[in-house]
Amino acid sequence: MTELSVTQLGQTVAAPESPEAAVLEAVPNPQNDVLYLARFVAPEFTSLCPVTGQPDFAHLVIDYAPGDWLIESKSLKLYLTSFRNHGSFHEDCTVKVARKIVEVAKPRWLRIGGYWYPRGGIPIDVFWQTGPAPEGLWVPDQGVAPYRGRG
């Protein structure tokens, strides 16, 4: 990616039917000489259980240190929406989102926390990152409390 070529920003765009059909876009980072962290939070992420077809819900926290490119937020919203009718396990959904961002934006560093709400009585939290955080990068806590139910 070498030039600005956003196709969704400022346009009426239907929700993609699947993650494979979704287009995640990046825009040039005007602060590419600065090491900083950007955070996206998606507290209402949904997908489908690949076995039962029942909905699964997660709170995603995506932290990344941009390089030359930023993830365009409308395209991210549409990409995340594309999972609503997609059957996949929690681990697959979480890592798939992170790897797509890495593919498109090539950040200096990325981590994702997928905090999945219980189904069958078991919450599943999924964490992935590209490697150690760069030295000097301030990485705050993701701010999501562990699931406690009624405890």
From TrEMBL:
Catalyzes the NADPH-dependent reduction of 7-cyano-7-deazaguanine (preQ0) to 7-aminomethyl-7-deazaguanine (preQ1). GO terms for cellular component: cytoplasm. The lineage of its organism: Bacteria, Pseudomonadati, Pseudomonadota, Alphaproteobacteria, Caulobacterales. It catalyses: 7-aminomethyl-7-carbaguanine + 2 NADP(+) = 7-cyano-7-carbaguanine + 2 NADPH + 3 H(+). It is found in: Cytoplasm. Substrate binds at residues 71-73, 90-91. Pfam families: QueF. Its main location: cytoplasm. The active site is at 49 (thioimide intermediate), 56 (proton donor). PANTHER family: NADPH-DEPENDENT 7-CYANO-7-DEAZAGUANINE REDUCTASE. Pathway: tRNA modification; tRNA-queuosine biosynthesis. This is NADPH-dependent 7-cyano-7-deazaguanine reductase. InterPro entries: GTP-CH-I_C/QueF, NADPH_dep_7-cyano-7-deazaG_red, QueF, QueF_type1. Belongs to the GTP cyclohydrolase I family. QueF type 1 subfamily. GO terms for molecular function: preQ1 synthase activity. It comes from Caulobacter endophyticus. GO terms for biological process: tRNA queuosine(34) biosynthetic process. Its EC number is 1.7.1.13. Keywords: Cytoplasm, NADP, Oxidoreductase, Queuosine biosynthesis.
